[in-house]
Specification:
Elements lengths: L3 E7 L3 E2 L5 E2 L3 E7 L12 E5 L28 E2 L4 E2 L4 E5 L14 E2 L4 E2 L9 H14 L7 E5 L1 H12 L6 E5 L7 H15 L16 H15 L2 H7 L26 H14 L4 H13 L9 H4 L6 E7 L7 H14 L3 E6 L7 H4 L1 H14 L32
Parallel strand pairs: 5-8, 5-11, 6-7, 11-12, 12-13, 13-14
Antiparallel strand pairs: 1-4, 2-3, 4-8, 9-10
Helix pairs in contact: 1-2, 3-4, 3-7, 4-6
């Protein structure tokens, strides 16, 4: 059975990119498997970066009930015999600063007051997540990483590793990610935050001794779910159907609502948001969405390619055709930046109608190319760039795949 370590490490004083510091940054993490250092200075260590509201509990082999989540968020990908094989790799996943699953953040105790930090906690960035992970890995005795893998905001985190620590990682795998958010997604995140801060129970973030702003957080999460699903998947799953007779509206409705159907899509959003408010902190949602919104791969550089110029490892970029939150075109832009910077790269495009959530719900499409890349990389293979030459797809081990190649 794969060994599992679950806990929290105190990393000492930490200065955030904003210039503010705290005396002791605590990072909650889980580690699976056994660490092996290689003679060439590498290792079998793989860092997995969670998405916006994920936790350190990436695999079902972790401690049951970790972080209050019903199940591990990527247990179809990480585990014994799976794409990220915990019998072969030492897999670490850390809860990022600003979150609410055990790492330092708004709901954690401020040692100076004995009360939750609330909005007195320093603003956090994706860069802060990366530096905190580096500090944690130092504590765990891990030097150079075999790979950094991340989905969504975690994919941005993976890209940031190539910029901040270009000598520390041999492979990066940004999945359903981008170099930066576009204006539409920035706008939707802004509306989601306003749903929280407009809730009377938010109280400027000082709600920990009273009723939290659950309505605001629920609305914010509903906006998120609409972003994560594709138009096609929503139509096929819900259409215009009315919810069952036993369905009850979660939010107050006007007098005329009883005349109109309470639709399945509304019921679904209400159900998902009800589950979410039980496990996530509203202030953390504000902090983490701002970190994601702020991220820009080229910040401090002349271009994305310039930002990646020092990175000497390889990259596998994965995108999904139905994802309008982080589009195929945005992933291709990152791939092109890698090519310009001389970084060996493959852009693997998956045909999918599931939208942004595809990287979580279609492991049969994510797992095989990910496993191959981690095992053998790109070097030494006759890899052709399908973005430039569609005729080379038959010889490209990481070429775009189509639904006909998979069941389910």
């Amino acid at each position: 059975m794969t060994s599992v370590e679950s806990g929290t490490r105190s990393l000492g004083e930490f200065t955030f990119e904003c210039g503010e510091s705290i005396d002791d940054l605590e990072i909650a993490y889980e580690a699976y498997g056994d660490f092996e250092a290689h003679p060439d200075g590498g290792s079998n260590a793989v860092l997995v970066c969670h998405a916006l509201t994920g936790s350190q509990n990436v695999a079902s082999e972790g401690v049951a009930g970790t972080s209050g989540q019903a199940r591990a968020w990527w247990n179809d990908i990480v585990g014994a015999g799976k794409a990220i094989d915990t019998t072969e790799y030492y897999v670490v996943c850390a809860n990022v600063p600003g979150s609410c699953y055990g790492s330092s953040g708004p709901p954690a105790e401020n040692p100076a007051t004995g009360e939750p930090w609330g909005t007195d906690f320093p603003p956090v960035t994706v860069g802060d997540w990366t530096r905190a992970q580096r500090r944690l890995l130092d504590e765990l005795g891990v030097g150079r990483l075999h790979a950094v893998v991340g989905g969504s905001a975690g994919g941005m985190n993976a890209l940031d590793w190539a910029v901040q620590y270009p000598d520390d990682v041999a492979r990066i795998v940004p999945v359903a990610a981008a170099a930066r958010l576009d204006a539409q997604c920035l706008a939707l995140d802004a509306v989601a935050r306003r749903a929280i801060t407009s809730d009377d129970d938010w109280q400027g973030g000082a709600y920990y001794d009273s009723e939290p702003p659950t309505d605001g957080l629920a609305l914010a999460r509903q906006i998120g779910h609409v972003m994560y699903l594709s138009k096609t998947s929503m139509q096929e799953r819900f259409g215009r159907r009315a919810a069952g007779r036993d369905a009850v509206r979660s939010f107050p409705a006007d007098r005329t609502a009883s005349y109109f159907p309470y639709r399945e899509v509304e019921s679904y959003l209400d159900y998902q948001s009800e589950k979410f408010v039980d496990r996530f902190d509203p202030n953390s949602y504000l902090y983490l969405t701002r970190a994601m919104d702020d991220y820009d791969l080229s910040e401090g550089y002349e271009s994305d390619a310039d930002a990646l110029a020092a990175y000497e490892g390889e990259a596998l970029i994965m995108s999904f055709t139905g994802d309008w939150h982080f589009t195929v075109a945005q992933s291709e832009s990152v791939a092109e930046a890698c090519r310009t910077a001389g970084v060996p790269v493959a852009h693997h495009v998956v045909e999918s109608d599931h939208g942004h959530d595809a990287f979580l719900v279609e492991p049969e499409k994510v797992g095989p190319p990910l496993r191959d890349f981690l095992d053998v990389g790109l070097e030494g293979r006759a890899i052709h760039d399908t973005a430039e030459d569609d005729e080379t797809t038959e010889t490209n081990d990481f070429a775009p795949v189509h639904n006909s190649l998979f069941s389910g």
